[in-house]
Design brief:
Layout: H1 3-36, H2 43-50, H3 54-57, H4 64-85
């Protein structure tokens, strides 16, 4: 494997791990919203449930609103996919 291909493979793996962590954060936030409402979702509460620091969360989402929007968008896409299949 030449160095260029190795760099692309490493970048792809890093992107995949980042996307997995984003999905995990969205899942936890969605569960908290469903249980307690959107106001209950805080960076501190998510950090406590993921083992990340509050500052590390900002690597995945710039702010709480971006996280909540991603959760709502993901849910809407899932509903749309289900409706299209029906």
């Amino acid at each position: 494997m030449n160095p260029s291909n190795a760099a692309r493979a490493a970048q792809s793996q890093t992107s995949s791990k980042r996307e997995d962590k984003r999905r995990q954060l969205m899942h936890l936030a969605a569960k908290a919203m469903n249980r307690d409402g959107a106001a209950a979702v805080t960076p501190a509460s998510l950090a406590g449930n993921t083992g990340l620091s509050r500052n590390a969360l900002y690597h995945y989402f710039p702010d709480k609103e971006a996280l909540l929007f991603a959760c709502y968008r993901d849910a809407a896409e899932e509903i749309l996919n289900t409706a299209e299949m029906a």
